[in-house]
Design a protein that fits this description.
heterodimer, A: alpha/beta, Oxidized Rhodanese, domain 1, 2 domains, five-stranded parallel sheet, 9 helices, 6 strands, about 45% helix, B: alpha+beta, Sufe protein. Chain: A, about 40% helix
Chain lengths: ~180, ~160
């Protein structure tokens, strides 16, 4: 994996995304890149190529934007152990799982609920902005995007589980089986 | 955005109507891109009434903003009993008159609903969905939740392999 400090103009977009899981969101938010088919980028093209064909964006500035967004993302993360402690509090956060139903049924954090359209609308329509909840995925790759969405809607108590259910299995509850998708 | 507009939106989404897939839909329309953050899908079922084909029920799914959900909720109520032509004649704020004038930044939200409605009715005219069984239609379109993020897609062709 490309280290955080080493993405450069000639890094491929796959390397950029590996190093900064939230890079796609940062690029879309700041430059409207990578959001849909008309502004997409391929994993093989380099950051420099993407910047060049996007109106000649300054590569160093784009890298700084990605890194700045990454630092903000880190504040949204909660570790498996921290979540375990929080779940023992009198008012524990709700745990919302954004994986497929099959994965959720196969291995999940006790008390977690599967994220659905109906739940999302319930959150936006009825949950107070002070609600605390934690987004969970398999390996922690996409839960940040979900948490960032709710943060953007003023839910400042949202967090994403670092490392996903897999980290929960390893750090908190070995009874939750680890798995991979083939 | 005025407080009163915000309150009207909040009121509308506090008890949203017609959310979710419509199992036996005659037409399904989608507009927007999940990658771009705004997407709306609408299901429509028709019935015959006094010799006219009218909308019996319309439902929607959206991961758009609250305003888009509010407009869709109100619009799907409004178009019940209307013919496709009458529904298509509704533009912008006419789809959700309860919300009043939309702020400039929110006009896109009503366009999203209007686009999904047009897409559904165009497909119905083409017979693309109407000729398919509900199961086929559902399989062809999938659910919006599934299309929004790879992480919420069904495992599908992949299988879960437990690690030892």
């Amino acid at each position: 994996m490309t280290s955080l400090m080493s993405i450069r103009s000639d890094s491929t977009m796959q390397e950029v995304l590996d190093a900064f899981p939230g890079a796609r969101r940062a690029l879309f938010k700041h430059y409207h890149l990578g959001g849909c088919s008309s502004c997409a980028f391929s994993p093989e093209e380099t950051l420099g190529q993407l910047c060049a064909r996007s109106g000649g964006l300054n590569v160093d500035e784009v890298i700084a934007t990605i890194q700045g967004s990454h630092e903000q993302d880190q504040k949204l993360l909660i570790s498996a152990r921290e979540l375990a402690e929080a779940l023992r509090l009198a008012n524990p956060p709700r745990v919302l799982d954004i994986r497929s139903r099959e994965e959720w049924e196969a291995a999940r954090i006790a008390g977690s609920v599967l994220f659905t359209q109906e739940l999302m609308n319930e959150i936006l329509g009825r949950w107070p902005k002070t609600a605390t909840f934690v987004m969970v995925d398999h390996l922690g790759a996409t839960s940040l995007d979900a948490a960032a969405y709710f943060l953007g809607h003023s839910y400042e108590g949202v967090r994403a589980l670092r490392g996903g259910v897999d980290a929960w299995s390893q750090e908190v509850d070995a009874g939750v089986p680890r798995y991979r998708l083939e | 955005m005025s407080d009163s507009f915000e309150k009207r939106v909040t009121d509308a989404i506090a008890n949203p109507k017609n959310m979710g897939e419509l199992a036996a839909a005659d037409a399904v329309g989608t507009v927007g891109s999940p990658g771009c953050g705004d997407m709306m899908r609408m299901w429509i079922k028709f019935k015959e009434e006094n010799g006219r084909k009218v909308i019996d029920k319309a439902t929607f799914q959206s991961f758009g903003c609250e305003t888009a959900i509010a407009v869709a909720s109100l619009a799907t109520e409004l178009i019940r009993g209307k013919t496709p032509e009458e529904a298509l004649a509704l533009k912008g704020e006419q789809l959700a008159p309860e919300l009043g004038a939309l702020p400039p930044m929110k006009i896109h939200c009503s366009e999203l609903v209007e686009g999904a409605l047009r897409d559904a009715l165009a497909k119905d005219n083409a017979g693309a969905v109407a000729t398919a069984s509900p199961a086929t239609a559902a399989a062809a379109t999938g659910s919006l939740v599934e299309s929004l993020s790879p992480s919420v897609q069904p495992v599908g062709g992949k299988k879960i392999v437990f690690l030892k």
